[in-house]
Amino acid sequence: MTNNIDLLVIGSGISGLSACMEAKKKFNNILIIDKGFHIGGRICSKNLNNIYFNHGAPFICRSKIKKSLSFFNLLKHNKNISRTVIKKNCNKSQIVYYPSPMMRSFFDDFNNKVIIKQKTKAINIERDGNFFTVNCSDNKFIIAKKIVLSVPAPQASELIQKINPQIVNEINKIKYSKCLAILIAFDQKVDIPKYSFFEDESGDLSTLFCGITFSNYQTNSVVIRMSNKWSEINFEYDKEIIIRKCLLLLSKKITHFKKYNVNSTYCHKWRYSQVTNWLSPSIPNVSKDKSIGFAGDWTVGPTIEDAFISGKKVVKNLL
Ligand SMILES: Cc1cc2nc3c(=O)[nH]c(=O)nc-3n(C[C@H](O)[C@H](O)[C@H](O)COP(=O)(O)OP(=O)(O)OC[C@H]3O[C@@H](n4cnc5c(N)ncnc54)[C@H](O)[C@@H]3O)c2cc1C
Q1: Is 121 in the pocket of ligand 1 (CB under 6 A)?
Q2: 32 Cβ inside 6 Å of ligand 1
Q3: Using a 6 Å cutoff on CB, does residue 36 contact ligand 1?
Q4: For domain 176-270, which CATH number applies: 3.90.660.10, 3.10.450.50, 3.30.1330.80, 3.90.245.10?
């Protein structure tokens, strides 16, 4: 059993981390738990046979809803972050940021500043007077005075059911796009574009994002993110079938694709990729007694900056 926690943050994605950094100004004992192996949630990288792939968010995007000076400063002072301009299909340019050598490097700066228990899933939350008891996957309990739930909406809805049923209806209205990410390792460096967007009329391939950094034009690893439409239609297929369909599409799009040998492949299914609608600003993100609050992209908007803003916002409202 872990006692004496002033604030427990469930989820170590960017929203949970930003909540934790904000909370450090006002709370003493703060703990983050996360069910995953690594900090960062959907900003992630995967190691397959010693090749790294960024299989989640490929870029850090600024918010279109609200800009945050702290987020800008975070990007500015993070030694791993660079800036680039991407062109979307509609020919519109967008400034985006990316960490090197991989997406996960974004969090190198956080590691010594917060206490995180990874591989610890919150199973349920109960209220006992002024305290919450969180039952975790390791059969241990955490007793906390206040909680920030920074997990995706469906998980938040499950965890909150018993203690704040009024908000469940609102959370259940949140929708996400699905994304199938196909990771391909070739046996040699391949000459395919650094990144390109293929959201064409067929709506099949969404993004072809090569390599783990932008510094290497030639790479032997690519991540193909299939479009929302394609992912929705094919989501429930077996992963092997999905990979085969993707390779077939790729060989049609890139004429010289067939000359490369594929060494290994992997398919990651993102059931909750990016939010397509989020909590109305009129819905409070904390309970009436300010003991439990929600953060996450689904409470503010679809970009990484929105998720970051949500963490700071929830802590301010919990005080
Ligand atoms: C394929 C893909 C492409 C994307 N592209 C972009 C892009 O180009 N630009 C951009 O800005 N954004 C992009 N996004 C969206 C962006 O990644 C998210 O908006 C952002 O990372 C959300 O952060 P978060 O903290 O709200 O949630 P998450 O990062 O999902 O963090 C939630 C954390 O909660 C943990 N968790 C869940 N349930 C439990 C539980 N019961 N107990 C303990 N822990 C739990 C999870 O393990 C996770 O670490 C993309 C996302 C995906 C998947």
Answers
A1: yes
A2: no
A3: yes
A4: 3.90.660.10
